[in-house]
Design goal:
CATH class: Alpha Beta
Structural class: alpha+beta
Number of strands: 3
Distance between the termini: 21 Å
Order of helices and strands: HEEHHE
CATH architecture: 2-Layer Sandwich
Shape: globular
CATH topology: GMP Synthetase, Chain A, domain 3
Number of helices: 3
């Protein structure tokens, strides 16, 4: 799941080297993916009215569902 978000984020931004992703697992089995990017690229990650971020979360939830788990995406500034 981390690889999916990493691929999407690096494809969107102008500085792909600044993208960092951390995957954490909670006690209840939920996977939390934290995404950070350069300040100039945050608008590209979030998108107009959050549409890009929502689409990334939708894809992440679809992949998690196929793997019988739960996942959430947190965008860190």
């Amino acid at each position: 799941m981390k690889e999916l978000i990493e691929f999407i984020a690096k494809s969107l931004v102008e500085d792909p080297d600044a993208v960092s992703i951390v995957e954490e697992k909670a006690e209840d089995g939920t996977i939390l993916i934290k995404l950070a990017a350069a300040q100039d690229d945050m608008g590209r990650i979030i998108g107009k009215q959050g549409r890009t971020a929502k689409a990334m979360r939708t894809l992440l939830n679809a992949k998690a569902t196929r793997e019988n788990s739960r996942a959430s995406l947190q965008i860190v500034e």
